[in-house]
Amino acid sequence: MSDVGALLLDLETHLATNVSEESIARARRDFSYLGHAKIPFLVPDSVKKAVADEVNRLLEVGSVRRDVSFAETDHSPRRMRNVRRKEIVEFGTVIPGVYNSARMLQSLGQIAGEPVHPCPYEPEQFVITCLEKDGDTHGWHWDDYSFAVVWVIETPPIADGGFVQCVPGTVWNKADPQINRTLTRHPIYSVELFSGDLYLMRTDTTLHRVYPVVNGTRKIINMGYASTRNLTMELSHETMDGLWADPETLEVSR
Ligand SMILES: O=C(O)CCC(=O)C(=O)O
Ligand SMILES: [Fe+2]
User: Fold this and answer.
1) Residue 101 pLDDT greater than 80, yes or no
2) Is the dihedral of CA 39, 145, 69, 165 positive or negative?
3) Nearest residue to 144 via CA among 250, 225, 199
4) Quick one: which atom of ligand 1 is closest to the CA of 193?
5) Ligand 1 atom closest to the CA of 199, numbered from 1
6) Fewest CB within 10 angstroms: 172, 187, 216, 232, which?
7) Domains in the chain, ordered, with CATH?
8) Residue range 64-91, pLDDT digits in tens
9) CA 26, 28, 30, 36 torsion: positive or negative?
10) Is 143 in the pocket of ligand 1 (CB under 6 A)?
11) Which are the contacts of 135, defined by CB distance < 8 A and separation ≥ 6?
């Protein structure tokens, strides 16, 4: 069996035998009223390490620096370095395998309370993000698809930022996003994260951002997933297409 095959077997065995119904139920409860849930218990250390090694390697071979903002999210800042799906699939093996694991999708579906599907729009399936310069941030936004699983590879101590803030139960009007209005009308939850953490978020109805980092590096891989509703609806992809555009077509601050 290939190394990747052995790792995927580790993942499936772990999900089948080492994940208690109680931890799934707790995550499901959190997810339903907070719009997010920490789920580090879903993945064995062997797979976390392999994904982290692959993320670190891919950041060395094919990343693009961004400093952009979009009218669709009131020009919230996006300052970061990314490796896109295209390069991840070309040079990586573990991440695409984990993303498509049927057993993983099933567990995510139990926590979400509805089926979770691979994203039909390939560029939004997974992306690596590195925040490394002072002030780097993935500013306030919603995602196009319903779910995201974020794997935290490395993060600075909380005093140096890099934590996630989110506002569940909110909707994205791309023509008039009203981010400040949304922030003042709803409670904001702030989530401290550690290396090795994973969280699931309801990203189409949870406004979210990463607090700017200073003095440190924050590396994650975001895996985006679709709800059943997403599969039949018309979805546009302006902010994500802009974010992951080829550098020569990159528009800085529309
Ligand atoms: O880095 C994070 O924790 C969130 C990333 C995110 O929101 C995104 O990639 O759309
Ligand atoms: Fe997001």
Assistant:
1) yes
2) negative
3) 225
4) 3
5) 3
6) 232
7) 3-244 (2.60.120.620)
8) 999 999 898 999 999 999 999 999 999 9
9) positive
10) yes
11) 79, 212, 213, 214
